[in-house]
Design goal:
Helix 1 runs parallel beside helix 2 and helix 1 runs parallel beside helix 7. By secondary structure, this protein is an alpha+beta fold. It folds into two domains: 205 residues, Enolpyruvate transferase domain (UDP-n-acetylglucosamine1-carboxyvinyl-transferase, Chain); 206 residues, Enolpyruvate transferase domain (UDP-n-acetylglucosamine1-carboxyvinyl-transferase, Chain), CATH 3.65.10.10. Strand 21, helix 12 and strand 22 form a beta-alpha-beta unit. Bound molecules: uridine-diphosphate-N-acetylglucosamine. The site of uridine-diphosphate-N-acetylglucosamine has 22 residues, from helix 1, helix 5, helix 6 and helix 10.
């Protein structure tokens, strides 16, 4: 069993370079199979989700080369096969093969997706979208069977601006006959990244990044190239760490607009940052003002940053409130923060955080990916040694997290026990 061991309270300086976005690349890789040719992705993060998706492409008889952050996916010989449970369960985003296979072959057979246990996470909006495009959807045991004689453009309204449903419907609709409109579409930057790749492959998608996306179907998609955008959640996590422990810590390779909500909240807490084009230089202030945060869809405060941010709120002088509005179960990390000395009361999806409380190192667990990130933040500021269990969750989403933190002065290592 792998564990992360952190000796806390070391100041951090130097530079952390942000990797390509997990939530983009997990959609860009399935999108590539819609091409009949070669698709090249730059800035691909080397995380376990990426590896799981390569396994699925290879199972479908696609060819993948992945070297030095550049991935080439050749889909000339792609075949339609069942995506088995051992692969589908490895990550949430395996569900993008539903849209991609349906768009390409008009048939997809795929087992239920996996992913973090942060709520019920239904995919009814994806399924309804496929049905609107003309598909029939069956559930057989733990497997979806999705088929269509032909796919026809449709007007699809999403009850909730779901990232996954927006991307999956785009993937299914790019090769449909006629025009599809997705209204109340999600506006996250990852959606723009996927639409840009599809357009580079020959698709006709407009409006990505707004709440109405128009997709004019085309009959063929060919080669395409894309840079994976920087991971705004990774950037946000290291910026929070910088606010706590930075001494002129530089976070480079960011897109400021993508983390605007976080930066604004950090300023409200009294954190000074120097932002220059694609980087932030941050130093920890002597004290933090308490604030309230409420997670929302983009451009609101990202749900994936709520848990790491709640650790910072334990260091503010006074009462802060963290309200989660996207998922039912984002408070898995709280019991471990309490064990470390935090004063937090949880009522359903709201945490009341009373600071400032010193944290003490102890044994904790990563109950999900972002809870794990929160534990890393907590371990870095705690007195003494923090040992984190179940770290596979963390390694799924943060490329080279140990090396990146060691390089700026953190005492952190992975041990096998
Ligand atoms: C994606 C991200 C995840 C992030 C989330 C919100 C990936 C791989 N994951 O997840 O890191 O936290 O966006 O920014 O990109 N919902 C339904 N029915 C559906 C789809 C969603 O009820 O068919 C609900 C979900 O249960 C959840 C909310 O909508 O409460 C948001 O889900 P969604 O935006 O789809 O998130 P994911 O795509 O799963």
């Amino acid at each position: 069993m792998k564990q992360l061991v952190i000796e806390g309270q070391h100041k951090l300086s130097g530079e952390i370079k942000i990797s390509g976005a997990k939530n983009s690349v997990v959609a860009l890789i399935p999108a590539a199979i819609l091409s009949d040719d070669e698709v090249k992705l730059y800035n691909v993060p080397n995380i376990s989700d990426t590896k799981a998706l390569i396994d699925i492409i290879e199972l479908l008889n696609g060819k993948v080369t992945y070297d030095d952050e550049v991935m080439i996916i050749n889909s000339q010989n792609i075949e339609n096969k069942v995506v088995p449970e051992n692969l589908s369960k490895k990550l949430r985003a395996s569900y993008y093969f539903m849209g991609a296979l349906l768009g390409k072959f008009h048939y997809a057979e795929i087992y239920f997706p996996g992913g973090c246990n942060i709520g019920s996470r239904p995919i009814d909006l994806h399924i309804n979208g496929f049905k609107k495009l003309g598909a029939e959807v069956y559930i057989e045991g733990n497997k979806y069977i999705i088929k269509a004689d032909k796919l026809k453009g449709a007007r699809i309204y999403l009850d909730f601006a779901s990232v996954g449903a927006t991307i999956n419907i785009m993937l299914a609709a790019v090769k449909a006959e006629g025009t599809t409109y997705i209204s109340n579409a999600a506006k996250e930057p990852e959606i723009v990244n996927v639409a840009t790749l599809l357009n580079n492959m020959g698709a006709r998608v407009s409006g990505a990044g707004t709440n109405e996306i128009k997709i004019e179907g085309v009959s063929k998609l060919s080669s395409g190239v894309i840079d994976v955008i920087p991971d705004r959640i990774e950037a946000g996590t290291y910026t929070i760490i910088g606010a706590l422990l930075g001494q002129d810590l530089k976070i480079s390779g960011i897109i400021e607009d993508h983390i605007d909500a976080l930066l604004s909240k950090l300023r409200e807490m009294g954190v000074n940052m120097y932002i220059d084009k694609n980087s932030i230089i941050i130093s920890s202030p002597h004290e933090f003002k308490p604030i309230n945060i409420k997670t929302l869809v983009f451009p609101g405060f990202a749900t994936d940053l709520g848990q790491p941010m709640s650790v910072l709120l334990t260091q503010a002088d006074g009462i802060s409130i963290f309200e989660e509005t996207i998922y039912e179960n984002r408070m898995g990390h709280v019991k471990y923060l309490q064990k470390m000395g935090a004063n937090i009361k949880v009522n359903d999806r709201t945490a009341i955080i009373i600071g400032k409380t010193p944290l003490k190192g102890t044994e904790v667990s990563a109950t999900d990916l972002r809870a794990g990130a929160a534990m890393v933040v907590a371990g870095l500021i705690a007195e003494g040694k923090t040992t984190i269990n179940d770290i596979e969750h963390i390694l799924r989403g943060y490329e080279k997290i140990v090396e990146k933190l060691q390089n700026v002065g953190a005492k952190i290592e992975v041990i096998e026990s």
